[in-house]
Specification:
Layout (H helix, E strand, L loop, with lengths): L11 H19 L11 E6 L5 H12 L3 E6 L11 H11 L2 E5 L3 H10 L4 E3 L7 H15 L6 E5 L4 H12 L3 E5 L8 H10 L2 E4 L2 H5 L4 E4 L11 H7 L7 H6 L5 E4 L11 H6 L1 H23 L4
Parallel strand pairs: 1-2, 1-3, 3-4, 5-6, 5-8, 6-7, 8-9
Helix pairs in contact: 1-5, 1-12, 2-12, 3-4, 5-6, 5-12, 6-7
This protein binds phosphoric acid mono(formamide)ester and norvaline (NVA).
């Protein structure tokens, strides 16, 4: 593993290796056991979109690992004024030991990996959010003891979260059902892959998707960059809400997860959110541990 660009690039074994190391790093952090695997290493964090969790967890993660992190807003970099991504990454490769980038186009992340000579981590694109899904899988495994054989249901937009969850769930032996409006399906190639490699369903019916689910997942109706579609999306997703009725159709011990930020009263009701707050905030915490595992595996390598 040289980069984390999307989960489709990883084998099941590599995903499990990340989750195992994440569990170990979480244990070490909770018990005050030092784990400074990246002493003297520096991560650059480029943001073309806003962030709370990704920014803070990567920065704290590097600190925990003995290294440091630089917050680089694209507004303050020359790429914000049009400097080529190819040139930017060739320069940054001379200063840094790794890059985490949050941007719009998946292509930009892939191009950084192609032109740079340091590990690139995808901190969210319009296409994928692999770091979030590693934390999600970690949280599910922590609570359920296993991933294999569990059913995950996703309610809402076939967006970056849905794309990455499909791949992460199917690769680790879960079944996956998504309920979304006809015009808001996940990436076509990812759905084809899922159909050929596991138990996958895409339906317009929330009831059908959540039936007997072990995990229900949802995300905002309008993602970053889709702010001007908010009204039209609000109408299209009106019935795609994780509420008490949806939860009643799932397994009695269903987990409800949300990558956050949440729009309560839209994709999830406030009462369902609060009833499942302990797993949702464990999930947010696990971003830290899962990303530390990714950074150790990518950046500890001798160059
Ligand atoms: N879930 C997530 O990535 O949160 P941020 O947008 O706050 O980083
Ligand atoms: N789908 C959301 C995820 C935020 C973590 C977005 O891209 O804005």
């Amino acid at each position: 593993m040289d980069h984390l660009l999307k989960l489709g690039d990883l084998t099941e074994e590599e995903i499990v290796q990340i989750l195992d190391l994440a569990d170990q790093l979480k244990y070490e952090k909770k018990n005050g056991i030092p784990h400074k695997h990246l002493a003297d290493k520096t991560l650059g964090m480029i943001f073309r979109k806003s962030s709370t969790r990704t920014r803070v967890s990567f920065e704290v993660g590097m600190y925990d690992l003995g290294g440091s992190a630089l917050f680089l807003s694209s507004n303050d970099l020359q790429i914000g004024r049009g400097e080529d991504t190819q040139d930017t990454i060739r320069v940054l490769s001379r200063y840094l030991d790794g890059i985490m980038i949050r941007t719009f186009d998946q292509e930009e992340v892939e191009m950084m990996a192609e032109y740079g000579s340091i590990p690139i981590i995808n901190g969210l694109t319009d296409y994928a959010h692999p770091c979030q899904v590693l934390a999600d899988l970690m949280t599910i495994r922590e609570r359920k003891g296993t991933l294999k054989g569990l059913k995950m249901a996703f309610v809402g937009d076939g967006n970056n979260m849905a794309n990455s969850l499909i791949v992460g769930a199917i690769k680790t032996g879960m079944s996956f059902a998504i309920a979304c409006p006809e015009e808001y399906k996940p990436d076509c190639e990812i759905m084809n892959w899922a159909q050929n490699n596991g138990d996958f369903l895409c339906t317009t019916s929330v009831d059908e998707a959540v039936k007997d689910a072990d995990v229900i997942y949802t995300d905002v109706w309008a993602s970053m960059g889709q702010e001007n579609e908010r009204a039209i999306r609000k109408a299209a997703f009106k019935y795609y809400c994780v509420d008490g009725h949806a939860c009643s159709l799932a397994k009695p011990d269903v987990m409800v997860l949300h990558c956050l930020p949440a729009h309560k009263g839209e994709e999830i009701t406030a009462d369902v959110f609060e009833a499942h707050a302990s797993e949702i905030f464990d999930e947010a915490e696990n971003r830290l541990h899962a990303q530390k595992a990714v950074m150790v595996l990518l950046m500890k390598k001798e160059k």
